[in-house]
Amino acid sequence: MKKADIQARIDELKMDYIRIQGDLDKLESTGGNVTMLEKTLSRMEDELNDLRKQLDKASE
């Protein structure tokens, strides 16, 4: 994967993460079940970490 592709995916994940976090906050304030959204955010965090490692290697 090229450096630009990795950065584009990171940017996309960040935008999705922010959106989902907002949804989670709204759902939590109304007493909804947030378990699935929390799991989704956790998976996204893991993917972001992996992509950042790939980006570091691509820079070398």
Topology:
Blueprint (H helix, E strand, L loop, with lengths): L2 H27 L5 H25 L1
Helix pairs in contact: 1-2
Please count the beta strands (DSSP E, at least 2 residues each).
Answer: 0
Q: Look at the structure and give the mean pLDDT.
A: 94
Spans where pLDDT lies below 50 across 5 or more residues: none
Would you tell me the structural class of the helices and strands?
Answer: mainly alpha
Number of helices: 2
Q: Approximately how much helix is present in the residues?
A: over 70%
Strand percentage lies at under 5%
What integer value in Å does the Rg equal? 14 Å
N- to C-terminal separation? 14 Å
Instruction: Write the element-wise H/E pattern from the N-terminal end onward.
Output: HH
Cα shape:
elongated
As for the number of domains, it is: 1
Biggest β-sheet strands, sense, barrel: none
Core attributes:
mainly alpha, elongated, SE1832-like, coiled coil
Please give a structural write-up:
- The protein has one domain.
- The protein starts with a helix and ends with a helix.
- The chain is elongated.
- Helix 1 (3-29) packs antiparallel against helix 2 (35-59).
- The mean pLDDT is 94.
- It has helices spanning 3-29, 35-59.
- 2% of the residues are buried.
- 87% of the residues lie in helices and 0% in strands.
- By secondary structure, it is mainly α.
- Keywords: Coiled coil.
- Residues 10-54 form a coiled coil.
Provide a compact summary of the structure.
With 60 residues, the chain is mainly alpha-helical. 87% of the residues lie in helices and 0% in strands.
